[in-house]
Amino acid sequence: MTFRALVVNKSDDHYQCELTQLSSEALPDEDVHLKVLYSSLNYKDGLAITGKAPVVRKFPMIPGIDLVAEVIQSRDEQFKAGDKVVLNGWSVGEKYWGGLAEYANLRGDWLIPLPSKLSAEQAMWIGTAGYTAMLSVMALQQHHISPESGPIVVTGAGGGVGSFAVYLLAKLGFKVIAVTGRESLHPYLKELGASEFMAREELDKPGKPLQKEQWAGAIDCVGSHTLANVCARTQYGGVVACCGLAQGMDLPASVAPFILRGVTLAGIDSVMRPKADRIKAWAQLAELVDANMLAKIGQTIPLEQALDYAHQLMDGQVKGRVAVKIA
Ligand code: NDP
Hints:
single chain, Quinone Oxidoreductase, Chain A, domain 1, six-stranded parallel sheet, Rossmann fold, alpha/beta, binds NADPH dihydro-nicotinamide-adenine-dinucleotide phosphate, seven-stranded mixed sheet
């Protein structure tokens, strides 16, 4: 039997991604055999598909760092045929074959049940981006940041993680300042709950180590000078959740905000996150997201268009989230 899959290959200096047919015998020997229903396009998938950064660590590779799937067969007692499951991270789509294919074989320990309140499509509109935004919000809450503490700034607000961060924070009663390089997205971000806007250019250049205090917390999807300026403008005792690197992986900052204002920099990793945290984050997402709002953040494309959309994502032209319908 063969199945359709997006496959990344590298030979010498030639990097290539194409939609092709693979033999089901080529699937790895893992506990759970799955029929993929939806996957999604995340920033990391964009990097893997276009080859813009070396995120793929083994070739050939099926990209797709997240998926919702139906269990066909399982050697893991946690799952039985017919169960619907969600996967995020665990290096799937980088080191292990991922979600942009009709079938996948994965480890049972990596999977969590799809929350009953969410459809497969809705879960992939949320995807790793929404789950990472939720983990970031949880980090602010764990450090006792509440709506009374002051406003929260979200950078890269027009992207997948940023859109969800704006929405989830607003839903929880926070005042949200959205930082975007696209003024055309203001109406969309306002609908998600942003009450103030800041242009990307105000934060993406070198700035002073300490600046006027403007917010109690931040969810930063961007890194580099933006993150340095975000920390420099965080008020005394504030918390910055650092989850992305869309501007760069560097952090040209000083220790001043941390040692003079007691600011906390909270690192967010979604990939190796323990299962208990994943279940908690997905349960909260299922409670907080509203079907109408989800439909505004998400769009769905067929597998045939994933390649094209991955390039658009890398060019910063995609708004919100893109689910990929597989089955
Ligand atoms: P998207 O591509 O959807 O969004 C990124 C957004 O960042 C863009 O929409 C844009 O927002 C902004 N941006 C892009 N380039 C620049 C730039 N040069 N300078 C400043 N802002 C820029 O990606 P995701 O939302 O999926 O991911 C965001 C980041 O989070 C990525 O770096 C990704 O790798 C990381 N990530 C980390 C995870 C973790 O586990 N820590 C998990 C998931 C993602 P706008 O146009 O509004 O300015």
